[in-house]
Amino acid sequence: MNSLLVKQKLAVFLTEDIQQEDLSANAIFTDQQQGEGVFIAKGSGILAGSDLAEEAYDLLGGQVAITKMKQDGDAVEPLDELLVVQGPIRTLLSAERVILNLMQRMSGIATLTHQAVKALDDPDMRITDTRKTAPGLRIFDKYAVKIGGGTNHRFGLYDGIMLKDNHIAFAGGIQEAVRAARQAAGQMVKIEVEIETKAQLLEAIEAEADIIMFDNRTPEEIKNWQPLVPQSIQTEISGGITMDDLPSYRGTGAHSLSLGFLTHSVQALDISFNYKGEKE
Q: Which end of the chain is less enclosed by CB atoms within 10 A, N or C?
């Protein structure tokens, strides 16, 4: 992750939570009081976001020692210790919720991605994410997908051209849309075209799109259409696919399969932060 962007995001999140001060922690503890705490898994899954603790503590003044018991990408089980932290009690408590919120969500995404990769079980097809991320959390959501064994699709509207049905309709067709996009885009920018019919597929091939997305197509349709696509063009499967559907797309020949549910319907992995002992 881009550390500068991560720090900017964390500063916003911490400011939202603390504002002028943490009334609870500041009322009970002094700046000098030290303590020790531990982040503990309460469910099974794949850990992601453990590096954010150090960044968050640094923004609040640092001076927190962190012992990582688990690394991002590690499988965790209930009662596993993830991080042991020692430092000012005020800092440990003021950063607790922001760290937990992000780590739980990211670990949930990593876990779900790992499950999707296993369910597809196709070494020739990559599981990718989408732009269906929580606003403000995209950098964290997409990092978690990679930790879970998936790959990232475009990060936003700025790093790739995807011509969907509305782009094509407004432009007057696939040929017209790709031609206009090609003229405007730099040589490093790829153009992806969404198709739903065989006629659209042939038009996208003729237009020499870089990537063709089979949108809401059955495995049987994809198997029949994939041989028509030149090797120079990548293909992607997308559209309403569930975890239960994944095995049926195995061996269809597409290069990637994008899943919105990895980030828009994730269940957070349960993690807690507990007192471990106060130091003099």
A: C
Q: Which of 7, 42, 70, 97 is catalytic?
A: 97
How many structural domains compose the chain? 2
| Residue 90 designated active-site | no
Find the catalytic residue in 72, 74, 141, 194.
Answer: 194
Is the same domain home to 15 and 121?
no
User: What is the per-residue pLDDT across 217-234, written as a single tens digit (0 to 9) for each?
Assistant: 999 999 999 999 999 999
173 with 220, same domain: the answer is yes
Q: How many CB atoms lie within 10 A of CB 265?
A: 11
101 and 133 in a single domain? The answer is: no
pTM of the model: 0.95
The catalytic residue among 215, 221, 245, 270 is 215
Examine the residue annotation and report whether 7 is marked as an active-site residue of this protein: no
SS3 176: helix
How distant, in Å, are the alpha carbons of 113, 122, 225, 237, 270 from that of 247? 14, 9, 19, 13, 28
Its domain, for residue 103, covers: 3-112+267-279
Task: List, for residues 56-66, the tens digit of each pLDDT value.
Answer: 999 999 899 99
Residue 220, domain CATH: 3.20.20.70
CATH number at 36 reads 3.90.1170.20
Cα distance between residue 18 and residue 119, in whole Å = 41
Is 154 known to be catalytic?
A: no
Q: Which of 21, 77, 124, 164 is catalytic?
A: 164
Active site residue 129: no
